[in-house]
Write a structure and sequence with these properties.
- Helix 2 crosses helix 3.
- About 35% of the residues are buried.
- By secondary structure, the protein is an alpha+beta fold.
- The radius of gyration is 14 Å and the shape is globular.
- It has one domain: HIT family, subunit A (2-Layer Sandwich), CATH 3.30.428.10.
- The longest helix has 21 residues.
- It is about 30% helix and about 20% strand.
- The chain has three helices and five strands; from the N terminus they run H-E-E-E-H-E-E-H.
- A five-stranded antiparallel beta sheet has the order 1-2-3-5-4.
Amino acid sequence: MPSIFSRIIAGELPAYIVAEDANHIAFLDINPNAIGHTLCVPKKEEDKLFDLNQEAYLALMQFSRRVAFAVKKAVPCKRIGLTVIGLEVPHVHVHLIPLNEMADATFQKKLSLTKEEMQELTQNISAAFV
């Protein structure tokens, strides 16, 4: 059964997509730790980060870096944190989290943003993606 991320990639489920290339997609986390919390996902479904071959791993990190720069331009923060956990969805994904304090990186504090706020973030990050 395809993961929820594969269903987003296939267009079966909606997402706030901020960036995309031939092999990756980035979209806002719908349960964000901080404003601008973004997920970077390879389009080819693979469960664990280190199951990716070296080329796919490096490509995901390069894509994530580009997205991180866009998030940093669009969202005021001290830095962008990166984490890979992968227990909730069996599809490799990189969390890019705008950080202003350690609590932003704990996955304990979740924000609720309106549809309008999510759309504005999507537009701002997309516009900054190079």
